[in-house]
Amino acid sequence: MKLGRFSLFDFVMYFIITVVVLACLLPFIYVLSVSFTAPEVYVPFEFTLIPKKFSIQVYLAILADGAFLQSLKNTVYVTVVGTVISLFATFAYAYGLTKKDMPFVKLFMGLVIFGLLFDPGILPNYITVRSLGLIDTFGSLIWTAVMISWNVIIAKSFLDGIPAEIEDAAKIDGCSHFGTFFRIILPLATASIAVLTLFIAVNQWNMYIRPMMYINDFQKRTIQVYLKTLLVDATTAVGSGGGGDGMNILPSETIRLATVVLAMLPIVIVYPFVQRYFVKGVMIGSVKG
After folding, report:
1. Which of 7, 38, 160, 240 could form a disulfide with 53 if both were Cys (CB 3.0 to 4.6 A apart)?
2. The pTM is what?
3. Bridge partner list, 54
4. Three-state secondary structure call for residue 284
5. Residues 6+ apart with CB under 8 A from 43
6. Which residues touch 255 (CB under 8 Å, ≥6 apart)?
7. At 2, is the secondary structure helix, strand, or coil?
8. SS3 content of the chain, % helix, strand, coil (to 5)
9. Is the C-alpha dihedral spanning 77, 129, 124, 118 positive or negative?
10. Could you tell me if 168 and 252 are in contact, meaning their C-beta atoms sit under 8 angstroms apart?
């Protein structure tokens, strides 16, 4: 049955899609609403999508808290350094796999597939990190995620699509393998680099299990561990003055939700800048028409 330009099936599908979108969107709206609600008018467990009284007092309190700023600094460091190292290692490894005449290339590719199918588990990972002396260091967070098999496969799939004639021309002009990689291959891999940068950065930023396992120093904890402390410890409170006498205690729920917003804000800000590469990048390895 058709109603104008739309059939009954179209209306049903649009209705289902709208319900799904609202189910995904409403929790985020609620988190924003509570985080921007003034502490004096906040009512615990009351569902509201619009703040009764708008206030950024909770955000100012969190940003003035030394523990939050330290955990944010640690997370930014791990994310930036880890992403740069991981990108270089991933594309360098993938570039080697594209060379069919490289010795043991099938063995190296087999290691990637093996890592994709099997995970050593928490205990072997911890023993390895401890034996390398990386416990309580940022290296335990960076080097344990330096290369992910799925990322290597994505990078290799894109590099396989670069015509061999381009590299041959570079060699004729006197380019070494390193020169070809840095001056020819990487500039042509902009789309895949942008996508993998987003994937790796999100993975580094949201890292939770590894910091809980490898980091015991309170001063080296990441933003996700700090957030876990707020979510689990019901007595946690942040002062509006950032510490000291006369501290105003704020509702723990508004503190938690405001911290959630601050924790996901950097990724939300970065995403629009790589969005134009995202669609092209995720189609890497697809069949061309």
Report:
1. 38
2. 0.77
3. 37
4. coil
5. none
6. 58, 61, 62, 230, 236, 237, 238
7. strand
8. 70, 5, 30
9. positive
10. no
Query: What pLDDT does 244 receive?
Result: 38
Structure tokens of 173? 């002009």
DSSP 55-91: --HHHHHHHT-HHHHHHHHHHHHHHHHHHHHHHHHHH
**Token digits for 209?**
């299990």
DSSP assignment string, 93-124:
HHHHHT-TTSTTHHHHHHHHHHHHH----HHH
Q: pLDDT digit string (tens) for 167-215?
A: 888 888 788 878 888 888 888 888 888 888 888 988 898 888 889 889 8
Distance CA 235, CA 285 (A): 51
179 to each of 87, 97, 140, 173, 212, how far by Cα in Å? 17, 17, 31, 11, 41
Which residues of the chain have a pLDDT value below 50? 234-247, 285, 287-289
Q: Taking CA 190 as the corner, what is the angle to CA 184 and CA 193, rounded to the nearest 5 degrees?
A: 110
Q: Which helix (H) or strand (E) holds 169?
A: helix 164-172
Q: Is 123 exposed, middle or buried (0-12, 13-18, 19+ CB in 10 A)?
A: exposed
**Are the C-beta atoms of 77 and 138 separated by less than 8 Å?**
yes
Paired tokens of 211: 């910091």
Rounded to whole angstroms, the Cα distance separating 164 from 277 reads 23
Closest CA to 70 of 78, 80, 58: 78
Give the CA angle between residues 90, 95, 97 to the nearest 5°: 100
SS3 225: helix
Query: Is residue 173 classed as helix, strand or coil in its secondary structure?
Result: coil
10 Å Cβ neighbour count for 41? 10
